[in-house]
Amino acid sequence: MNLKYYTSVQFIFSIFGLLFLFSCQKEIDVKIPDYEQRLVVDGSIEPGVKPLVILTWTAPYFGNQNYSNFQQYFVENAEVIVSDGTVSDTLYQPLPGVFPAYTSNNLIGQAGKTYTLTITVNNKTYTSVTSILPAIPVDSLYFKPDLNDTLGYLWAHFKDPEAPGDFYRWFAKRINKDDRFLAPFASATDDKFFNGKEFDFPNARGMEPNSEKPDDKNDERGYFKKGDSVMVKFCTIGEKEYRYFRSYYQNLSSNGNPFSAPSTLESNIDNGAIGLWCGYGTFFKGVRLQ
Amino acid sequence: MLKFLLLIFLIEFSYAQNFTVSGKITDKSNGESMSGAAIFVKEINKAFAANNYGFYSITLPSGNYSLLYHFTGYTTITKNISLSKDMQINLQLQQEEIQMEEVVVKGQKSDINISGSQMGTVTMDIEQIKTLPQFMGEVDVMKTIQLIPGVKSAGDGQTGFYVRGGGPDQNLILLDEAVVYNASHLMGFFSVFNGDAIKNVSLVKGGMPAQYGNRLSSVLDIQMKEGNNQRFEVNGGIGLIASRLTVQGPLKKDTSSFIISARRTYVDVLARPFFKPGSPFAGTSYFFYDLNAKFNYLFSDKNKIFFSGYFGRDKFLFKDNQSGFNVNIPWGNSTGCFRWNHIFNKKLFSNISLIYSYYDFSFGALQEGFEFKLFSGIRDWNIKQDFSWFPNTRHDVKWGWNYTYHTFIPTNVSARQGETTFDLGDVVKLYAHDAHAYITDDWDVTDFLKINAGVRFSYFAQVGPFTRYLKNQAGVITDSIRYEKNKKVKDYNGVEPRAAIRWTLNKSSSIKASYTRNFQYIHLASISSVSLPTDVWMPSTEYIKPQIGNQYALGYFKNFKNDEFETSVEAYYKEMKNLIEYKEGAQPQDNVLDNPDNSFTFGKGRAYGVEFFVKKNSGKLTGWIGYTLSWTTRQFDAINLGKEFFAKYDRRHDASLVINYQRNKRWTFSGIWVYGTGNAGTLPNSLAFFEGDIMTIYGLRNSYRFQAYHRMDLSATYTPDRNKQLQKRKTHLEKKYSQSGKDISKIELPKKWARNYESSWSFSVFNVYNRMNPYFIYFDSEGDFTQGTFKVRAKQVSLFPVLPSVTWNFKF
Q1: Complete domains list, chain A, with CATH
Q2: Which of A270, B283, B326, B347 is the most exposed place for a label (fewest CB within 10 A)?
């Protein structure tokens, strides 16, 4: 559902366009009140894959952010434990000082299992629970031109199960073009609007944040190209996880939108941490776009 | 104390040999009834006011009396009567004859602010409002009332107003008794009230009398003109963004008249050349129009009927040919009202009204075969009856009842992708019965003490058809309960005592105190941070409890120089509970396949402050200065971690200055200056990284203050002297005729309409010193994180720089 205009600043600006004929703007100094540094968790686990947990601290809103000073927001030396109820493992940091990611050599995700994450850092403990739900398939992936004959969306045929309460997230990876599975904007959905229905839906192409690739800057941005080979990862997620993504995308889209109420991020982690510990039930399918 | 009062009450009614003088007061030139005209009885040194329909009734012991009939700007008429039987005096007041270069002294000069029991009530004549500076040439009553202390505007481009810390949904806005649910055009830049169709405006900001209810904060009562029943009249105006035309006249002289008034903007046409083809605004079009109509018929001295109606619509269109993105957003109000005034007898007056009001909003978007529609609204059918009873000079008793059947249409969504229609559930409508009854007495207990006491009983019931969805812990619907048509889902009732006391200190000063308790059964929830037409009205339901407010006020009133200057100090404390807000992160489509009342969260509010007011009523120079010092807070368990926070429109200091200078008959100058502490807002305070994207983390609710708002507007109105023009023409023709030897007596008089013709020019300058008042702040990030140039900048957008406008008005 391409509703990007619906929430975008540009659209609201155009509603007011006539009045903004007169409007004017200036840069101002805003005194931001002090903030409390909070833990941000970006963790995931899926079948056949090791858990991955990236830990950072929140950064001040103003000020010049870059890679050289980015390191000060890395969470180093945290105690990160993942447990599936019977096996418990303390995660290690493969690249300390370079990247704040924690992973395991002993634990691999399994469908149907529930995983507890426990993080202890600066004498504060945070916990979260997620499950890897059974995968639900998509079929008949196909390309449909949109902008011109060669650029278009990747469509999928889908049958939602009869029972309500399914939540999904969509990823895709172009073979030899993308380094990892990428989720387009607003890639998470619930089945509230289509429970039990059978239908086709279009998917835009996701991209790396701040991507400098030529095909993310020109007309090809957001489109798949005829001839691409694409692997789709269609995931089943839990309700809390879906709600997090909903608030996450709302946060990204309302950033700078002066008319939206300040959005609050949902989280499935306790003790005031931001972010998500997410189990994905994965279904993979490949297609050559023609 | 109660026994004592009761005793006095009984004594009052046992007066012997009383007679009643009653009647109606109308304007001689057009037959409009003159609500608020005063009748002063010299012998007992007491003034009485005519009601909304110009009806008055005074009961006095037999004797000789002088009655002075007075209305500002009109010649006072004195009637000497010998009261030995009941009398009926219907009177026509005439506008003061103005001599050339002489100054008309306008403005109310009376001591009603000292002698009345009412607190916090302001009435304004539309002619008074018309002389004030106008924004883009449009007379706007909503902007004018925001100049009164205790009434706050939300800033540029918003007509929503905030009375003593209450929200915009806590104002009861009535147009000829019909509720107007969204009083603004163009997202709040203009109000829906066309100045040409309005007679007067009154605002009750505190001490709400018992005849009004279902809102916590204020009543804005707007009366439409009845239409000239003496002669046909056409008037209109051409302004910067809109034109107006009004036609009125008698259907049958003295007994029946009509008025039709229309207005439409042409910003869409004017703005088109400014949009470059290909710019994002190129496919943008916007206009609004409104239509007011009223008809009245006087059957007999005792019966009069009125029909009045309003219909207004805004339409916004957006079309982007490149992306094929198409948007159509219409919204608007319609109201209709039938009224029957009946005079039972010389002391008892009644009015029955049958009222319809409707507001709807819809949003339609189309792109790439994906169609999306969203609509919401509210519809009311309302019947009410009000009685006024004037048993003797010490009592003015009012009672009545009111029943409304509401239909609420909270946000409904439909969507289609090609052939597939998404299941967005049935159209959700909510129904409710809403009934009220009241009685109130304005009672002169002694010469010093006056009590206005009343009580209102209210009952509200949400009824079927309705489906309550039952959810499991994960928020997935597992079951539902179905209520059939008219079956009660949930009901509430309330007892609302209202009291105001006035204690006279001396002829020119008094102290007043009031207490009111109000219930509000319908609620407006705003999903965005500004008031938009998408805001949805909701009934009280199982989860949404009625809002309850208690207000205490105390005031000191003093007049100087024979009532030329009015001053007052009023302090208030208000507490409100069951206030409603959307849950954080709620989205309009959450209503779909769910009960809309699940999207809300509830809390309480407090407001307190002091208002200072100085007003000059007469002379060439009139105007006022108002200053308010106030605090407004809210507390919601589910917002801001449950901590109390300042409301968005909490305003520590709020000041307004209004000056009107009538230089001579032709030129009037006026100016306003307003100042208000900046709005409170929520700003981001930190960033968080997730999947490589940067999220914004917000600080505590409303912990940031925008810059203060202040602005000055000036205006001048020029009215050419028509007599002089006509005289000039006559002299010219006489000269011409005598030169050519024709008979001067053969000079034809101009046609009647041309003799009646009048015109005026209004020049206004909005925001004279070009103050950049904050409309909103947004943040713009630029640069690249990997390059070390990433930076966030705060930008403040201001809406209106200095804006001159000119309007030409005519009348014949």
Answers
A1: 39-131 (2.60.40), 134-262+281-288 (2.60.40)
A2: A270
